[in-house]
């Protein structure tokens, strides 16, 4: 009798989605830190200043175009990591320990993020995007305390959401130093969307594409971000092979 060997679930595991997310992050880092800042010396210019430099020296057009495309591709990481964060919260045995790990990652990533994106060790004008994940986690932890569908709880959730958006604005937890979100963190909007539709997978990805499109109110770079939601249609619900140390260390190491 043949042994019972169940085939692997088709589609993308959580680990595969994470690899896609890191690929998009790597492209963004290459676009801003390597091409824009190092090769072109544009450093922390705004998008308008970048186009002005383009007009002044047409010879840099191919590199500027590549930098812009790569930075747009970086926004594709936001839906993926926001989705994985919500999945992690739904399946973790200890949300508080999960929050501690993500917060430590945000703190460790801050100095290399400042150096990679702005060329200086300390930059208080913005935070690395992992802080947006931390803010999203804290928001969902508050949501969990007011789950009953009462008017009081709905009002409290609205107040909590507005407070989180204000904190996101103060922290400037953006993917780019020139971004001014809605006016807060794109990750927060996406995390709330994935959480709100966590029990409605048929509508979840459509809602996420709409939320990702709304992020263009922060930056036109986010026009690319809805494309990465398509990868979530292939999610098979399995975590896949995981190496926690590698997963948490990869982002600061890449920076």
Can you walk through the features of this model?
The protein contains eleven helices and no strands. α1 runs antiparallel to α3 and α8 runs antiparallel to α9. The protein is globular and about 60 Å long.
Brief summary of the model shown:
With 255 residues, the protein is mainly alpha-helical. Helix content is 66%, strand content 0%.
List the keywords.
255 residues; 66% helix; 0% strand
Give the secondary structure arrangement, pairings included:
Layout: H1 14-39, H2 47-56, H3 61-74, H4 77-91, H5 95-118, H6 130-144, H7 151-171, H8 186-196, H9 201-214, H10 226-232, H11 244-254
Average of pLDDT: 81
Range of strand content: under 5%
- Percentage of residues assigned to helices: 55-70%
Shape: globular
Q: Calculate the terminal CA-CA distance, rounded to whole Å.
A: 53 Å
Order of helices and strands: HHHHHHHHHHH
Radius of gyration: 19 Å
- Low-pLDDT stretches are 174-184
How many β-strand stretches?
Answer: 0
């Amino acid at each position: 009798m043949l042994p019972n060997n169940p085939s692997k679930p088709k589609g993308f595991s959580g680990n595969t989605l994470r690899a896609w997310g890191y690929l998009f992050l790597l492209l963004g880092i290459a676009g801003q830190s390597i091409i824009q800042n190092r090769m072109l010396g544009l450093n922390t210019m705004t998008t308008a200043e970048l186009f002005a430099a383009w007009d002044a020296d047409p010879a840099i057009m191919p590199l500027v175009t590549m930098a812009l495309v790569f930075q747009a591709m970086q926004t594709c990481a936001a839906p993926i990591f926001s989705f994985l964060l919500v999945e992690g919260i739904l399946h973790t045995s200890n949300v508080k320990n999960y929050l501690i790990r993500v917060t430590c990652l945000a703190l460790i990533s801050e100095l290399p993020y400042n150096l990679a994106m702005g060329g200086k060790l300390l930059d208080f004008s913005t935070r690395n995007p992992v802080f947006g994940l931390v803010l999203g986690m804290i928001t969902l932890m508050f949501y969990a305390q007011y789950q009953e569908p009462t008017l009081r709880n709905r009002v409290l959730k609205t107040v909590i959401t507005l407070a989180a958006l204000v904190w996101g604005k103060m922290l400037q937890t953006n993917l780019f130093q020139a971004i001014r979100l809605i006016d807060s963190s794109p990750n927060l909007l996406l995390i709330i969307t994935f959480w709100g539709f966590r029990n409605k997978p048929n509508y979840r990805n459509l809602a996420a594409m709409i939320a990702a499109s709304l992020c263009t109110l922060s930056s036109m770079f986010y026009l690319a971000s809805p494309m990465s939601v398509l990868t979530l249609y292939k999610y098979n619900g399995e975590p896949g092979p995981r190496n926690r140390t590698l997963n948490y260390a990869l982002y600061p190491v890449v920076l």
